[in-house]
Amino acid sequence: MAHDQFALLAGAAPEEVQELLSHGRRRHFSAGEVVFHAGDPADCVHFVRGGRFAVRITTEFGDVATLNVVGPGDSFGELALLTPDAPRSATVAALERAETLSVHEIDFRRLRRARPQTDALLSQLLAGRVRRLSEQLVDALYLPAETRVRRRLLDVAAAYGGDGGPGADGATADGASVPLTQEELASLAGTSRATVNKVLREEQEHGTLELRRGRTTVLDAAALERRARGFG
């Protein structure tokens, strides 16, 4: 993956990005491997070069909730760049064989000093994270569970659609094959596995997706989107 494809570094001078990433450490993860746990010291940011990762939290009642799925071109652990003394707020684990470039906050601090506009880019990225979590909170409070399942499936399909990963030009959810179990989709949507199974069966009957063991392939993202917005 080209260095200029990382969203967090968009707009920075190529030579400065090259310098920053030259200090990075390439890390490889197997499916299910934990990158870091909630509560661990936060001292670096991870740029995703390949594969997908789940961002999860554990509630006070012991339930595990999946907040997001990130893929190539994305990053996670950005709070370490703003508050390096604070602990990690979530647990991140690889959903498949994956690779990141880990950059220490000290090296990123040098880039921020050299190019103050990097702070604006970081703030913009974090603001986007907050907006997304706010939208999910509204969904959880006011939308039926079946609608949440459809919307979260579309979100994850976007992360698996296209060769460029989430946010890449031309990426599409059509044909995206999502290798998440129904339990994982239920965690992402904040509902039960039974509800996820019901919704997926209904969508298969409508021809918007195809179900296989441990995998869901989106066939018609536009139709699924309409149904997720209450128009289908």
Automatic annotation (TrEMBL):
Cyclic nucleotide-binding domain location? 8-111
Looking at the Swiss-Prot or TrEMBL record, what is one Pfam family this protein matches?
Answer: cNMP_binding
Domain HTH crp-type stretches: 143-222
Q: Which domain of life is it from?
A: Bacteria
Q: Which InterPro entries match?
A: cNMP-bd_CS, cNMP-bd_dom, cNMP-bd_dom_sf, Env_Response_Regulators, HTH_CRP, RmlC-like_jellyroll, WH-like_DNA-bd_sf, WH_DNA-bd_sf
Write the record's keywords in alphabetical order, separated by commas. DNA-binding, Transcription, Transcription regulation
Q: Which named protein is this?
A: Crp/Fnr family transcriptional regulator
Q: Which organism is it from?
A: Conexibacter stalactiti
